[in-house]
Amino acid sequence: MNVIEIDHLTKYYGKTRGIIDVSFSVEGGEIFGFIGPNGAGKSTTIRTLLGLIYPTSGSAKIFGKDCIAHGPEIRRQIGYLPSEVFYYDGMKVGDLLRYSASFYRKDCSKRIQELAEVLDLDLTRKIDDLSYGNKKKVGIVQGLLHEPKLIILDEPTGGLDPLMQQKFFDLLLEENKKGATVLLSSHILSEVQRLCDRVAIIKDGRIVKVEKISTLKESNYKRFKCEFTAMPDANMFSIDGVENLTIDGNVASFLFRGDVNKVVRMLATLDITDIWAADPDLEEIFMHYYEKEA
User: Fold this and answer.
1) Residue at 283 is within a domain
2) Do 17 and 27 meet the contact criterion of CB atoms below 8 Å apart?
3) Predicted confidence band of residue 286 (pLDDT cuts 50, 70, 90)
């Protein structure tokens, strides 16, 4: 059964584009990724899905119920972490979380304590005294304290250090094992690859592709940048998988898709001063992997 069903969802802000004809579904018990560059329409989709803003056209259902008509009922079973969190600065963390818990009419005190310990969050501190990362932790606890059936996360790891990110991912996997469905929005591809089975990719307000992560990984590119003592002939880079070659003085940059050993063997024949290898950004993946869809 699908927990989320989005059908041709469109949102305009006056004449300004929000999202256009967005359609995808999320199965029960799935960890589903929603990725795209900043400004692509991820947050607009989520806010429309939650009934925080109304769509221009199209529809969205959660648990089989329309998100607008049954908004209050649906939201009791959802944990939501927005990309930016804002709170009453003068409140203590514990008071704020107990106030949040009161909306669900259940005793969440034990759960709050457990989550605070996992995330190393001091419940006695005032919100105003917290760093951005610690405010994000408050948002995570707030989103999970009532043990929701659906967890919706919009850029959740901003401000968290790598160790805390791992603890957060472990928490999500734990909730998922208990039966929670997760929609994880991010512009960081590696985050989504670690957790998700499938992803919907959005760019310029439109869904580019709904894809299995396994397929996405097979099509992954690497970005190489090499500095040479003297620039070799450009024909040296004419091997299968090399794209977007640019040469600036003694520095060559290119994208590569395929067996990296081919690149390593080619570079081993040259006199290199320095070399960098990294994952390309999402824009590059869109331009190359989804060329035919564009």
Assistant:
1) no
2) no
3) low
